Request: fold
Amino acid sequence: MHTTNLTLLTIVGEAILKDRLLAELERAGARGHTLTECEGAGSRHRRVSETLGANIKLETIVSSVVADRLLATLANDYFPKFAVIAYLSPVAVVRGEKYI
Amino acid sequence: MHTTNLTLLTIVGEAILKDRLLAELERAGARGHTLTECEGAGSRHRRVSETLGANIKLETIVSSVVADRLLATLANDYFPKFAVIAYLSPVAVVRGEKYI
Amino acid sequence: MHTTNLTLLTIVGEAILKDRLLAELERAGARGHTLTECEGAGSRHRRVSETLGANIKLETIVSSVVADRLLATLANDYFPKFAVIAYLSPVAVVRGEKYI
Reply:
Protein backbone atom coordinates (compact mmCIF):
# COMPACT_ATOMS: atom_id res chain seq x y z
CA MET A 1 0.00 0.00 0.00
CA HIS A 2 1.42 3.36 -1.04
CA THR A 3 1.85 5.79 1.84
CA THR A 4 3.31 9.28 2.16
CA ASN A 5 5.68 10.28 4.94
CA LEU A 6 4.20 13.26 6.76
CA THR A 7 4.22 14.80 10.22
CA LEU A 8 1.62 14.32 12.92
CA LEU A 9 1.54 17.46 15.05
CA THR A 10 -0.05 16.99 18.47
CA ILE A 11 -1.04 20.01 20.56
CA VAL A 12 -2.38 19.62 24.11
CA GLY A 13 -3.81 22.62 25.89
CA GLU A 14 -6.70 24.02 27.88
CA ALA A 15 -10.13 23.42 26.35
CA ILE A 16 -10.78 27.15 26.43
CA LEU A 17 -8.20 27.53 23.64
CA LYS A 18 -10.12 25.26 21.27
CA ASP A 19 -11.49 27.84 18.84
CA ARG A 20 -8.29 29.84 18.77
CA LEU A 21 -6.15 26.79 18.11
CA LEU A 22 -8.48 25.51 15.39
CA ALA A 23 -8.25 28.90 13.71
CA GLU A 24 -4.44 28.72 13.87
CA LEU A 25 -4.52 25.30 12.23
CA GLU A 26 -6.64 26.52 9.38
CA ARG A 27 -4.61 29.72 8.96
CA ALA A 28 -1.37 27.72 8.80
CA GLY A 29 -2.71 25.49 6.07
CA ALA A 30 -3.67 22.30 7.93
CA ARG A 31 -6.32 20.38 6.01
CA GLY A 32 -8.04 18.70 8.92
CA HIS A 33 -7.73 17.68 12.53
CA THR A 34 -8.90 15.32 15.23
CA LEU A 35 -9.89 16.67 18.62
CA THR A 36 -10.03 14.55 21.78
CA GLU A 37 -10.98 15.60 25.28
CA CYS A 38 -8.40 14.70 27.88
CA GLU A 39 -7.05 15.56 31.29
CA GLY A 40 -3.51 16.56 31.94
CA ALA A 41 -0.97 17.69 34.42
CA GLY A 42 1.92 19.89 33.48
CA SER A 43 5.58 19.97 34.18
CA ARG A 44 5.13 20.62 37.87
CA HIS A 45 3.00 17.46 37.96
CA ARG A 46 0.05 18.95 39.75
CA ARG A 47 -2.53 16.28 40.41
CA VAL A 48 -5.25 15.96 37.81
CA SER A 49 -7.84 17.08 40.36
CA GLU A 50 -5.92 20.33 40.73
CA THR A 51 -5.96 21.25 37.08
CA LEU A 52 -8.12 24.20 36.25
CA GLY A 53 -10.25 22.57 33.59
CA ALA A 54 -10.46 20.03 30.86
CA ASN A 55 -7.79 19.80 28.23
CA ILE A 56 -8.01 19.08 24.56
CA LYS A 57 -5.65 17.17 22.33
CA LEU A 58 -5.54 18.42 18.77
CA GLU A 59 -3.90 16.22 16.15
CA THR A 60 -3.25 17.29 12.60
CA ILE A 61 -1.34 15.62 9.79
CA VAL A 62 0.70 18.19 7.93
CA SER A 63 3.76 18.77 5.80
CA SER A 64 6.94 19.78 7.59
CA VAL A 65 6.43 23.33 6.27
CA VAL A 66 3.01 23.65 7.89
CA ALA A 67 4.29 21.96 11.06
CA ASP A 68 7.08 24.54 11.35
CA ARG A 69 4.65 27.38 10.76
CA LEU A 70 2.39 26.13 13.53
CA LEU A 71 5.25 25.57 15.97
CA ALA A 72 6.44 29.13 15.37
CA THR A 73 2.97 30.47 16.09
CA LEU A 74 2.71 28.40 19.26
CA ALA A 75 6.14 29.51 20.42
CA ASN A 76 5.40 33.19 19.86
CA ASP A 77 1.78 33.50 20.91
CA TYR A 78 0.90 30.58 23.17
CA PHE A 79 3.83 29.16 25.09
CA PRO A 80 4.53 32.41 26.98
CA LYS A 81 0.94 32.62 28.19
CA PHE A 82 -0.65 29.18 28.25
CA ALA A 83 0.08 25.64 29.40
CA VAL A 84 0.43 24.17 25.92
CA ILE A 85 2.57 21.27 24.78
CA ALA A 86 3.37 20.40 21.18
CA TYR A 87 5.24 17.56 19.57
CA LEU A 88 5.86 16.01 16.18
CA SER A 89 5.67 12.33 15.25
CA PRO A 90 6.59 10.71 11.93
CA VAL A 91 3.63 9.05 10.23
CA ALA A 92 3.05 7.20 6.96
CA VAL A 93 -0.31 8.28 5.62
CA VAL A 94 -2.61 6.69 3.07
CA ARG A 95 -3.82 9.18 0.46
CA GLY A 96 -1.20 11.58 1.78
CA GLU A 97 -1.80 14.03 -1.06
CA LYS A 98 -4.99 15.11 0.71
CA TYR A 99 -2.96 16.56 3.57
CA ILE A 100 -0.55 18.83 1.76
CA MET B 1 13.83 -3.39 28.63
CA HIS B 2 13.32 -5.56 25.58
CA THR B 3 10.88 -4.14 23.07
CA THR B 4 9.69 -5.22 19.62
CA ASN B 5 9.40 -2.83 16.69
CA LEU B 6 5.85 -2.93 15.40
CA THR B 7 3.37 -0.66 13.64
CA LEU B 8 0.65 1.41 15.28
CA LEU B 9 -2.21 1.76 12.81
CA THR B 10 -4.57 4.63 13.57
CA ILE B 11 -7.94 4.83 11.85
CA VAL B 12 -10.26 7.82 12.34
CA GLY B 13 -13.80 7.69 11.00
CA GLU B 14 -17.45 8.21 11.74
CA ALA B 15 -18.70 6.51 14.91
CA ILE B 16 -21.34 4.71 12.87
CA LEU B 17 -18.55 2.62 11.33
CA LYS B 18 -17.44 1.26 14.70
CA ASP B 19 -18.72 -2.31 14.47
CA ARG B 20 -17.69 -2.70 10.84
CA LEU B 21 -14.18 -1.41 11.48
CA LEU B 22 -13.74 -3.62 14.56
CA ALA B 23 -14.79 -6.61 12.47
CA GLU B 24 -12.20 -5.66 9.83
CA LEU B 25 -9.51 -5.51 12.51
CA GLU B 26 -10.33 -8.95 13.79
CA ARG B 27 -10.62 -10.42 10.28
CA ALA B 28 -7.22 -8.99 9.33
CA GLY B 29 -5.58 -10.57 12.35
CA ALA B 30 -5.22 -7.65 14.76
CA ARG B 31 -5.01 -8.89 18.35
CA GLY B 32 -6.52 -5.93 20.11
CA HIS B 33 -7.38 -2.28 19.81
CA THR B 34 -8.05 0.93 21.67
CA LEU B 35 -11.07 3.05 20.81
CA THR B 36 -11.38 6.73 21.67
CA GLU B 37 -14.24 9.08 20.94
CA CYS B 38 -13.20 12.24 19.15
CA GLU B 39 -14.34 15.03 16.91
CA GLY B 40 -12.84 15.78 13.58
CA ALA B 41 -12.94 17.87 10.50
CA GLY B 42 -11.85 16.59 7.15
CA SER B 43 -9.75 17.84 4.33
CA ARG B 44 -12.13 20.62 3.43
CA HIS B 45 -11.79 21.80 7.03
CA ARG B 46 -15.46 22.11 7.77
CA ARG B 47 -15.98 23.43 11.25
CA VAL B 48 -16.40 20.86 13.97
CA SER B 49 -19.97 22.02 14.48
CA GLU B 50 -20.70 21.14 10.87
CA THR B 51 -19.56 17.54 11.11
CA LEU B 52 -22.37 15.06 10.88
CA GLY B 53 -21.62 13.15 14.05
CA ALA B 54 -19.03 11.93 16.47
CA ASN B 55 -15.89 10.27 15.24
CA ILE B 56 -13.94 7.39 16.64
CA LYS B 57 -10.23 6.82 16.68
CA LEU B 58 -9.22 3.17 16.50
CA GLU B 59 -5.64 2.26 17.31
CA THR B 60 -4.19 -1.19 16.86
CA ILE B 61 -0.63 -2.47 17.17
CA VAL B 62 0.10 -4.89 14.38
CA SER B 63 2.81 -6.41 12.22
CA SER B 64 3.52 -4.75 8.91
CA VAL B 65 1.73 -7.64 7.18
CA VAL B 66 -1.50 -7.04 9.09
CA ALA B 67 -1.12 -3.27 8.65
CA ASP B 68 -0.87 -3.70 4.86
CA ARG B 69 -3.88 -5.99 4.84
CA LEU B 70 -5.96 -3.45 6.73
CA LEU B 71 -4.83 -0.54 4.55
CA ALA B 72 -5.81 -2.49 1.45
CA THR B 73 -9.27 -3.15 2.89
CA LEU B 74 -9.69 0.49 3.83
CA ALA B 75 -8.58 1.64 0.38
CA ASN B 76 -10.94 -0.72 -1.42
CA ASP B 77 -14.04 -0.66 0.75
CA TYR B 78 -13.99 2.51 2.86
CA PHE B 79 -12.07 5.40 1.33
CA PRO B 80 -14.36 5.64 -1.73
CA LYS B 81 -17.47 5.90 0.45
CA PHE B 82 -16.56 7.25 3.86
CA ALA B 83 -14.54 10.04 5.48
CA VAL B 84 -11.85 7.79 6.92
CA ILE B 85 -8.21 8.57 7.55
CA ALA B 86 -5.51 6.02 8.28
CA TYR B 87 -1.86 6.31 9.16
CA LEU B 88 1.02 4.22 10.45
CA SER B 89 3.46 5.11 13.22
CA PRO B 90 6.53 3.18 14.32
CA VAL B 91 6.29 1.92 17.91
CA ALA B 92 8.48 -0.14 20.22
CA VAL B 93 6.23 -2.45 22.19
CA VAL B 94 6.80 -4.35 25.41
CA ARG B 95 5.75 -8.00 25.12
CA GLY B 96 5.50 -7.48 21.38
CA GLU B 97 4.98 -11.19 20.77
CA LYS B 98 1.40 -10.78 21.96
CA TYR B 99 0.60 -8.59 18.96
CA ILE B 100 1.76 -10.76 16.09
CA MET C 1 11.86 25.56 15.13
CA HIS C 2 14.21 23.85 17.58
CA THR C 3 12.88 20.55 18.90
CA THR C 4 14.30 17.85 21.17
CA ASN C 5 14.07 14.14 20.38
CA LEU C 6 12.34 12.41 23.25
CA THR C 7 10.18 9.36 23.89
CA LEU C 8 6.40 9.30 24.12
CA LEU C 9 5.41 6.44 26.43
CA THR C 10 1.80 5.32 26.06
CA ILE C 11 0.22 3.10 28.70
CA VAL C 12 -3.30 1.69 28.26
CA GLY C 13 -4.97 -0.09 31.15
CA GLU C 14 -8.07 -0.39 33.27
CA ALA C 15 -9.40 2.89 34.64
CA ILE C 16 -9.18 1.48 38.16
CA LEU C 17 -5.39 1.66 37.87
CA LYS C 18 -5.40 5.42 37.28
CA ASP C 19 -4.09 6.63 40.64
CA ARG C 20 -1.50 3.87 40.90
CA LEU C 21 -0.18 4.50 37.40
CA LEU C 22 -0.04 8.26 37.93
CA ALA C 23 1.96 7.66 41.11
CA GLU C 24 4.37 5.44 39.15
CA LEU C 25 4.85 8.18 36.57
CA GLU C 26 5.69 10.73 39.21
CA ARG C 27 7.98 8.35 41.10
CA ALA C 28 9.88 7.50 37.92
CA GLY C 29 10.52 11.16 37.15
CA ALA C 30 7.93 11.95 34.48
CA ARG C 31 7.17 15.66 34.42
CA GLY C 32 3.60 15.52 33.18
CA HIS C 33 1.05 13.41 31.42
CA THR C 34 -2.12 13.39 29.37
CA LEU C 35 -4.97 11.06 30.30
CA THR C 36 -7.71 10.04 27.87
CA GLU C 37 -10.67 7.76 28.51
CA CYS C 38 -10.98 4.95 26.01
CA GLU C 39 -12.32 1.47 25.44
CA GLY C 40 -10.20 -1.47 24.52
CA ALA C 41 -10.05 -5.13 23.87
CA GLY C 42 -6.99 -7.19 24.61
CA SER C 43 -5.02 -9.83 22.84
CA ARG C 44 -7.83 -12.37 22.98
CA HIS C 45 -9.93 -9.74 21.20
CA ARG C 46 -12.93 -9.94 23.45
CA ARG C 47 -15.62 -7.63 22.19
CA VAL C 48 -15.66 -4.17 23.68
CA SER C 49 -18.99 -4.92 25.36
CA GLU C 50 -17.33 -7.77 27.21
CA THR C 51 -14.57 -5.71 28.76
CA LEU C 52 -14.92 -5.24 32.47
CA GLY C 53 -14.79 -1.47 32.52
CA ALA C 54 -13.48 1.65 30.95
CA ASN C 55 -9.84 1.97 30.07
CA ILE C 56 -7.50 4.89 30.29
CA LYS C 57 -4.69 5.91 28.01
CA LEU C 58 -1.82 7.65 29.77
CA GLU C 59 0.73 9.46 27.64
CA THR C 60 3.92 10.95 29.00
CA ILE C 61 6.90 12.50 27.24
CA VAL C 62 10.09 11.35 28.90
CA SER C 63 13.79 10.72 28.41
CA SER C 64 14.83 7.20 27.46
CA VAL C 65 16.10 6.71 31.03
CA VAL C 66 12.70 7.47 32.55
CA ALA C 67 10.97 5.40 29.86
CA ASP C 68 13.13 2.38 30.74
CA ARG C 69 12.46 2.87 34.43
CA LEU C 70 8.71 2.91 33.83
CA LEU C 71 8.78 -0.11 31.52
CA ALA C 72 10.69 -2.07 34.17
CA THR C 73 8.09 -1.16 36.79
CA LEU C 74 5.26 -2.15 34.47
CA ALA C 75 6.94 -5.44 33.61
CA ASN C 76 7.54 -6.35 37.24
CA ASP C 77 4.43 -5.09 38.97
CA TYR C 78 1.65 -4.74 36.39
CA PHE C 79 1.97 -7.06 33.41
CA PRO C 80 1.71 -10.23 35.50
CA LYS C 81 -1.54 -9.06 37.11
CA PHE C 82 -3.29 -6.57 34.86
CA ALA C 83 -4.29 -6.09 31.22
CA VAL C 84 -1.84 -3.28 30.50
CA ILE C 85 -0.14 -2.40 27.26
CA ALA C 86 2.82 -0.07 26.88
CA TYR C 87 4.68 1.24 23.87
CA LEU C 88 7.24 3.87 22.95
CA SER C 89 7.07 6.32 20.04
CA PRO C 90 9.75 8.75 18.91
CA VAL C 91 8.68 12.39 19.19
CA ALA C 92 10.27 15.78 18.53
CA VAL C 93 9.20 18.12 21.29
CA VAL C 94 9.19 21.90 21.50
CA ARG C 95 10.70 23.17 24.74
CA GLY C 96 11.98 19.64 25.33
CA GLU C 97 14.07 20.74 28.31
CA LYS C 98 10.87 20.89 30.35
CA TYR C 99 10.44 17.14 30.06
CA ILE C 100 13.81 15.89 31.26
Notes: Strands of chain A lie at 4-14, 33-41, 55-62, 85-93. Chain A touches chain C at residues 12, 36-45, 47-48, 55, 57, 68, 71-72, 74-75, 79, 85-90 (CB under 8 Å). The CA atoms of residues 41 and 50 of chain A lie 8 Å apart. Chain A has two helices and four strands.
